[in-house]
Every structure is written in C-alpha cells, then in structure tokens.
Amino acid sequence: MTDEARKDENDATADGNAGDVDVTIFVCTNCREATDSEARPGIGLMQALKQAAEGKPLAVKPVTCLANCDKSPSAAFNHRSGWSYVFGHLSTGNVDDIVTGAMMLAEDERGFLPLRGRPMCLRGKGMTARIPPFHHHEDMPS
C-alpha cells in the first residue's frame, strides 16, 4: 500500500467510515467572511458536518478552494461511482439538510441526487454545478 493510499484509509477511519464511504462531502475552508475578518465559515461548517455525518456512509473533508467564492461557504458532494455536485450559500444552519442530501445521493442506485425531496438549500441558486462521473456516456440528441 502506498503512503498516499494509507493516508486516505486513515482519513476515512478517522471519520468512522472506513470502507463504507459512498459520498464524500468536500467543504471549502479558504473563503473568509465578507467583512475584513479572519473568520473562515467553511471551517465551522466542516466541523459541524463531521459530527452530523458520524455513523453514516459519508466522509467530510476540507478542500482549499471550490472556485465558488461568490457563494461562500461552499461544499461539494462526490459519489464514489456517480455524479458530483457543488453547492453554495450554505451555513451551519443547513447541516441537517446537507447530510440529508448527501444521504439521498449515497442511497440512489444511479449515483444521482434526485430533485424530488432534495432540501431547498441544495436546489436552484444553491446548486452551482452537477458533474457527470468519468464513466458517463450519453448519445448526442438527433
């Protein structure tokens, strides 16, 4: 096992989900609050999500930047074999909804986050991008 693979396995174990992770929630920890403060709201969001995701097939990890700064704080869902999503305008008040959405993605057999039943903070202007999995193939419309 490479050092990098061992580190990833240790990170998953630290999240309490070794081998059972279906969705990783990446939280941007770089953006600061609109004021000229040092506060980085993504750090608090990530900590709250880690606690809320305990015992679920979810991992929560920091990421330096999701290039979604105008919608900070931001998070991304990455399904192990399905779609990925980027969301913005999140807060610690959305933690339960974020976990609900990540679980919806984890439980969908296609690795797709259905719109029906999706929490409001993960719809409309809250969603920035939906990214197909690498193995996705679709015919061009005729």
Automatic annotation (TrEMBL):
<dbReference type="InterPro" id="IPR012863">
    <property type="entry name" value="DUF1636"/>
</dbReference>
<dbReference type="InterPro" id="IPR036249">
    <property type="entry name" value="Thioredoxin-like_sf"/>
</dbReference>
<dbReference type="Pfam" id="PF07845">
    <property type="entry name" value="DUF1636"/>
</dbReference>
<protein>
    <submittedName>
        <fullName>DUF1636 domain-containing protein</fullName>
    </submittedName>
</protein>
